Amino acid sequence: MPYVINEKCINELDGACVDVCPVDCIYEGATKRYINPDECIDCGACLSECPVAAIVAPSGGPDPLWVRDNAAFFALPLPGRDTALGNLGGAYDTGAIGVDTPLVTDWNKES
Description:
It comes from Embleya hyalina. Keywords: 3Fe-4S, 4Fe-4S, Electron transport, Iron, Iron-sulfur, Metal-binding, Transport. It holds the Pfam family Fer4. The protein is α+β, with helices and mostly antiparallel strands. It has a single domain (4-101), classed as Alpha-Beta Plaits (2-Layer Sandwich), CATH 3.30.70. It has three helices and four strands. A two-stranded antiparallel ribbon has the order 1-4. A two-stranded antiparallel ribbon has the order 2-3.
């Protein structure tokens, strides 16, 4: 299981985690970042850089809700898109995706 970004990242988007990721597996949605579970190498470089403690290590027992949500960002078509993102090979060249998963979008509506 890779590292996971939870609800503490919603509306944060600091980016310190992105700057230290050696494999560029942290992608930006509209209001939250997501770790691609297939690209993450479980190095932990991002963990200590997150200013809001939104990143959870596999050994920290991440909430299954956020494990599924991070995976869904890449595996399922996002709102307004016909296909899933899949493995893009790094976030740098991709830029902000500009859309979040339905869970995060609904979370923002409720807050």
